[in-house]
Specification:
This protein folds into two domains: 33 residues; 77 residues, no CATH class. Helix content is 36%, strand content 22%. It has three helices and five strands. Strands 1-2-3-4-5 form a five-stranded antiparallel beta sheet, covered by helices on one side. The radius of gyration is 16 Å and the shape is globular.
Amino acid sequence: MAKRKQDLDARIQRNRQMAEQHDAKGNGHKAVEMELPSSFDAPESSTIASAHYFSDQRVMVVEFKRKPKDKTAERYTFGGVPPELWAEFLTSDSKGRFFTTRIRPNFAGVAQV
């Protein structure tokens, strides 16, 4: 898991540097898209089963691990999530805590059945 986080951190840093170089050339906008995984499976998380990000729509879909009494896992869609927040989510030490403090209070979630 530590290696995966280091690889992801290196990719994010490389993309930031490329975007800064692009801006330094006077192009006026960041045309470099971040190379981030679009999905995440979280077997180490006690709360989140998986998460998916659709960068073209800025939509994040989070599926929670089901509780023994539940028949299905809960899945929610969150719109307007910026790619930078997705990157922070991927590199966070606790996906559940990050979701609870940074995503759920700031973005409206729609339950999927």
